Amino acid sequence: DAGVIQSPRHEVTEMGQEVTLRCKPISGHDYLFWYRQTMMRGLELLIYFNNNVPIDDSGMPEDRFSAKMPNASFSTLKIQPSEPRDSAVYFCASSSDGRGETQYFGPGTRLLVL
Amino acid sequence: QKEVEQNSGPLSVPEGAIASLNCTYSDRVSQSFFWYRQYSGKSPELIMSIYSNGDKEDGRFTAQLNKASQYVSLLIRDSQPSDSATYLCAVHSGSARQLTFGSGTQLTVLP
Q1: A101 with A2: CB under 8 angstroms?
Q2: Is B46 helix (H, G, I), strand (E, B) or coil?
Q3: pLDDT tens for residues B42-99?
Q4: How far does A15 lie from chain B, in Å, by closest CA?
Q5: Which helix (H) or strand (E) holds A49?
Q6: pLDDT tens digits for A5-28?
């Protein structure tokens, strides 16, 4: 069974550009999480969905970030406009244990904003 | 105060030794505890979960939980160079329904 799929794996963009990250959770998983990892701040939860509904977006840094989950098999995280401080690895994770505890991570998108 | 604290390391042990990784957490209502392994440039991989006080063993890995002391640890027996990675402690609070991760401990197993 395929794991969590993320695309692109690497993204280099210039400041001010729009960036869209994509995630396909494991089939049948009803929780989806977006994380950001940096050396300085570690692994931070940005937002999570349950049954396609955003439950907690308190970790989203500011209005430049938005996330959607139009269906059970697809989610996007958008940054508009992007800034150099957004450079990080963005992970998507999914879970099916009813409480969102046991999470399986995708390979991540390494974002560099110049 | 950080919600989940780990020694950042680096922690170095010789091959064949026991590696001991520690984690403390601040939220007393936390119910579920996890250890993730992250190789450099890769994503976190779940290796252990523990929910009750005491020890839980899985192969060379043993997780230990003491809720009274708000302490969870991971022991790796017969450490191998392939165990060299960053180990992340994660705590799930039922009320918040989210995992909070520690900053990770970098482990190096020397051949």
Answers
A1: no
A2: strand
A3: 999 999 999 999 999 999 999 999 999 999 999 999 999 999 999 999 998 766 668 8
A4: 24
A5: strand A42-50
A6: 999 999 999 999 999 999 999 999
Please answer whether residues B107 and B11 qualify as being in contact, where contact means their C-beta atoms are separated by less than 8 angstroms. yes
Is the torsion defined by CA of A23, A25, A27, A29 positive or negative?
A: negative
- A7's tokens: 């695309």
Which helix (H) or strand (E) is B11 found in, with range? Answer: strand B11-14
CB contact under 8 A, B98 and A105: no
Q: Quickly tell me which residue has 């269906």 as its tokens.
A: A71
Q: Do B92 and A104 touch (CB under 8 A)?
A: no
Q: Nearest CA to B107 among B61, B65, B71?
A: B61
Task: Give the distance from CA A77 to its chain's centroid.
Answer: 6
Provide the 8-state DSSP code for A84. G
Mark B43-53 as b/e (b = at least 16 C-beta within 10 Å).
bbebbbbbeee
pLDDT at res. A61: 87
Taking 90 as the threshold, does the pLDDT of residue A101 lie above it? no
Contact A52, A72 (CB under 8 A): yes
